[in-house]
Amino acid sequence: MNKKSPYEQSFVKFIPYLNDIGIVTRTMIDRIEYIYTLCKDMTTEEFDDIFIEDSINQDGTREYDVVNFFSKHYIVSANNFLNKVDIIIGLLVKRIINWSIKAQDFNFKKATIKSRLYLDVQIYADETFLNLKATGNNCRYMQTIINKYIKPNFISS
Q: What is the CATH number for 50?
């Protein structure tokens, strides 16, 4: 029997990633899809990738802070997405003038539970930075985001 997904078809492709980083409850996935729908309605492009910033708090539990959706030209971020709607839309195309990576217990090949990865990106003519953070197996996903969206949009003069 082929069971129909309760999620929007363009969102379903993100569920394996969400499950892989520990987002498995229907409530959290529903909330992310709701934010996805809001973000999608604010742009003219389909989102190709998702990246959720996560951190480990002092008691060892994983917290999910910001959801980021990436398209060919845009990054759309929702801060504190589990509790409110706070959406920022940014243009990425050839606008990155500076970026840096900080890694802890991550060799860019294999992530462990102790792995941490931090990315700071400065966007052209803008004093704001894009800051991404990842823990554990999410570091590999951030590495994909860097290769697919950050490196190609770096302005080299």
A: 2.30.29.30
